[in-house]
């Protein structure tokens, strides 16, 4: 039986070529649908299943230098096979 939560991860063997450099790869056009980022257009590489969008939150001055971001999750619509790919807002995510 494997123990979880020990912080030990088994070594991973690469199974595919490394991702292309995002600065030089063209990617595909995508559109965010619904939620706070509705209508935002972006480029994605490799058709990720999930896109996370963050928005900085204002914090009150205090002794800790923490940064707080609101997190929004958008999931790719598997029915769309052409550009722009569609990512719908996931209301149930964090």
TrEMBL record:
The organism's lineage?
Bacteria, Bacillati, Actinomycetota, Actinomycetes, Kitasatosporales
Report the source organism: Streptomyces wadayamensis
Top-level taxon:
Bacteria
Compositional bias ranges of the Low complexity kind = 1-10
Protein name (database record):
Uncharacterized protein
Give me the ranges of the annotated region Disordered. Answer: 1-40
